[in-house]
Amino acid sequence: MESDVSSVADVPGVRVGHSQRRGQGWLSGVTVVVPPRGTYGSVDVRGGGPGTHETDALDPTTLVPTVDAVVLTGGSAYGLAAASGVQRWCEEHGRGFEVPGGVVPIVPAAAIFDLGRGGDFGARPDPDLGYAAAAAANDGPALRGNVGAGTGAAIGRGSFKGGLGNAAVRLGGANAGIVVGAVAVVNAAGVLWAGPEQTVLPVPGAASPAGANTTIAVLVTNAVLDVAQCKRLATAGHAGMARALSPVHTLADGDTVFALSTREVPISGEGQEALTAVIELQAAAAEALRRAILDGVAGAETVRTTAGEWPAYPRV
């Protein structure tokens, strides 16, 4: 594996958009990943408290293999309403599964818990904020830190500011044209992994009710994968989450990883050679997600609201 690329936006054709609100009780937002048309996708949910939308549609045994957009949002289960705004944007642009009379956009979503962190429990993403994030999607340099769905994120049971991060890894050798990128929203119960002696969680911060956690992420590769292989890529991505955070996949987290394939670059080789390349891609996905999580925490800045203070994570 090589690392000459740095964000999910480095995967050709992928666009990322954000919308957020801060102040007057708000501290939340939405991030939307808009892949090229015809992108395949799946998901792996590992946390005990997930907030998700349309994940069943991404099972390899279901009818539609394609994904039109993926929504990462604040607002817990309420914030999943942002997905309907993204669906509206997709419909306006003719993106979706064709049915008589129009299209039905396939827009899965996952949410973090940031309710009340800006001071107003009712200030959470809605369809309009989701639409704005989709409309803002572009292929420019990826943003990080307190942006989009990372706006209200906190880690260490609410003790420190979390955020949104990006990373990407390129495969080597005959598959050097293949890239896997990751965007992660880090709102974990745990903290950055510091070694095997790390066994105690920090004291809860200003606003950390049970279940007020979750790390959600999207992996995107330009390698040609089917839906089952996307599912396995999402599963492999969770290894990167476990290398970056401790603990993960707890009963109080809703840890979820989506995996998308834009299906542009065939994996080189046959038989064992091709299998080895797929395994390398899975390893690259885990590494990309690990780096994206670290990037999200490193890019997050201290936030003060009427509900409390979330200092930046201690720099090591």
Structure overview:
The protein has 5 helices and 18 strands. The longest helix has 28 residues, at 272-299. It starts with 14 loop residues before the first strand and ends in a 6-residue tail after the last strand. The strands form 6 sheets. It has a 5-stranded mixed sheet with strand order 1-2-5-8-4. The protein is α+β, with helices and mostly antiparallel strands. It has helices at residues 76-79, 82-92, 127-135, 227-244, 272-299; strands at 15-23, 26-34, 40-45, 52-53, 70-73, 97-99, 102-104, 109-111, 154-155, 160-161, 163-170, 179-187, 191-192, 214-223, 245-246, 256-265, 303-305, 308-310. The protein has one domain (8-306): 4-Layer Sandwich (L-amino peptidase D-ALA esterase/amidase), CATH 3.60.70. The mean pLDDT is 92. β9 and β10 form a beta hairpin.
Defining traits:
single chain, alpha+beta, 5-stranded mixed sheet, 18 strands, L-amino peptidase D-ALA esterase/amidase, 316 residues
> How many strands in all?
18
CATH architecture heading? 4-Layer Sandwich
Sequence stretches where pLDDT stays below 50 over 5 or more residues: none
Average pLDDT over all residues: 92
**Strand fraction band?**
25-35%
**CATH topology title:** L-amino peptidase D-ALA esterase/amidase
The CATH C-level name is: Alpha Beta
Oligomeric organization of the protein chains: single chain
Q: How many whole angstroms does the radius of gyration measure?
A: 18 Å
Number of helices: 5
Mind describing the biggest β-sheet?
Answer: 5 strands, mixed
Tertiary shape: globular
Q: In percent, how helical is the residue content?
A: 10-25%
User: Termini separation (Å)?
Assistant: 26 Å
